[in-house]
Amino acid sequence: MKKKQLTAIALSTAMFTSAIAMAPGVTNAKTTYKIVNGKLVDVKTKKVVKGYKTYNGKLYKDGKLFKGIYKNTYYNKGKKASYWYNDVYYHQGKPYTGYSGQQKLRFKDGLPLTGEYNKILFEDGKRFNGWKDSKYYLKGHLANGNVTINGKTYKFKDGVKQDFSLTIMHTNDTHAHLDSVAKRVTAINEIRKDNPSNVLLDAGDVFSGTLYFNEFKGQADLEFMNMMGYDAATFGNHEFDLGSSAEGHQALVDFIKDANFPFVSANVDFSKDDKFKGLFSDLVSSNPEKGQIYTGIIKEVDGQKVGIFGLTTAETKDISSPGSIEFNNYIAEAQKAVKAFKGQNVDKIIALTHIGYDDSPVYDNDQILAKTVKGIDVIVGGHTHTKLDQVVTVDTDNDNNEKAPTVIVQTGQYGENLGNLSVTFDKKGEVTASEQHLVNVAEKAENPAAAEKLKQYKDRIAEISNEETGVVAEEELTNPRASATSTESVRANETALGDYITDGMLAKAKTLNNKVVLALQNGGGIRSSINAGPITVGEVIAVLPFGNTLATVDISGADLRAALEHGVKDSPKESGGFLHIAGGKYTFDSSKPVGSRIVSFQIKQGDDYVDVKDDQTYTIATNAFTAKGGDGFATFEKAYADGRVQDLGLSDWENFEEQLKSLKTVNNKTEGRIIDVAK
């Protein structure tokens, strides 16, 4: 609809005089005319208005019921409509653009054109726009241009709906799975076309997981994120995986600098790592720059301010390699961020988190965040790879008292789904309605431009992936995860892959240090299966994608036993710290109390197994991540702090490949190295 520039039209004391222009001589039956002996008489001239008569309170002309006003009642084609005096204005028997409890109204040609009122504007009988500060609206929209009234000039912008609806597209834990990214581009473009009031967010863990990351260190992912037009992203724990490499966090720094969008991170302290100087700010910015890190940002969408801040799990220090980067308390930092937004009159607040939907409360999770921190409207989450088909609404606090609702969403993993959250806010900024739809990206067509961009990366990955190692898998080497139908998991049970990996660790470590007697590998670091048939380099790297190096640790038998206890603390449930073993074996009872589950623990001496002695020192091999205390291994962390860890600098996947090559053929059988007697 073309908007008209407004003019200040004087309003007479008879509010409806200018409103009714439908019949000559009948301008307002209440104030100008009265009925005398069944005839319509002009009060001022005392003349009868010809052609008009009343019958049973209804006004007629030429024998037909007239479409007009009489006794504050509006008629349309002989049918009585609704009262409109003082409350609602009607056009042709229907609420047109009404003003509840009008103060001043300006009309043109019998239709409400503009108005001045401090509450609500309606269109077609429905609440449409917010109305305050004497702003003028044209059929539900703020007008264009300037209007001067009583010596005061008003400037106008396009109006916005009072009940503001926002579409939040979101991804999490994509882990460099780019083969479907051209389809994700299509899905995003389709949603944007139908929902112009939108934002696109990523909740972290873009890094690590496939050859795309091993080869391009996040730059391939970033090219597509820039193309898709992400509005903001936060950091996952895997963004810090390369911290212990020779280059440190340079790949992450390059990822940030080259981004066409800002990053949000309220609880991560980058100040002690010089590589991040000039990249981060503790501010909530209303004018964020691309390639910078902020506590939070304020984004204007359709005239409304939306606050977005980020959180990363404190578990990162245990499960990744952040180095000197520190992680502050997520609750305290979230409260500070919300307060900062409120201070800038922002009442629609999104927490973009990588703390997990239902992760360990010892660290952090979204449900605790929603119950504890007031003022968060939406939590767009990641980390636990949780597929939430519908929103989870938290509307009670920790004391079970009612609170304003907080909705939580998460898409699953690997870019398989694009989150499409529709959320409606009322005038107070509180969520009144929400609906989540997970778009199955695989069902979309590829965006041609994105597919063309991807080809250059795929060609290089294909070259690497297709190089055969010379080893043949007689059957699939599985990498199971727990499900509704099975408890078997690489994070809870012995697997053939775990055996082969630790065998390779032990063999390589012994060539450098003949005192090494044992090797351990965390189950959370084993990421993919291997298909039956010739094994390729790509498959090997996909199993161990994090670029870890081999390390040795000098440790007491008692501390080793404590490490095994830590590894089975969550059994029979999954734990990334579950330890696979070579050079030894252990038995545990998952039904026993945590800390008292290890039944037996032995190392191999020649052809025999002997019990590990608590007071004896052993040299073992593991990956550098575990050796430094990753996954919460306190005994290893202490050994590292004491200088009892040596990083040998040898790539884990290359050690694994070397072990496979020494065998020529492999199968999926296990050897009984780890047994849970409770099963």
UniProtKB/TrEMBL annotation:
GO molecular function: hydrolase activity, acting on ester bonds; metal ion binding; nucleotide binding
Key word Kinase present: no
Name of the featured protein: 2', 3'-cyclic nucleotide 2'-phosphodiesterase
Domain 5'-Nucleotidase C-terminal, chain residue ranges per copy: 484-637
Similarity comment: Belongs to the 5'-nucleotidase family.
Any single GO BP term: nucleotide catabolic process
Record's keyword terms, sorted: Hydrolase, Nucleotide-binding, Signal
Species of origin: Candidatus Kurthia intestinigallinarum
Lineage: Bacteria, Bacillati, Bacillota, Bacilli, Bacillales
Transmembrane segments annotated in the record for this chain: none
Start and end residues of each Calcineurin-like phosphoesterase domain: 167-386
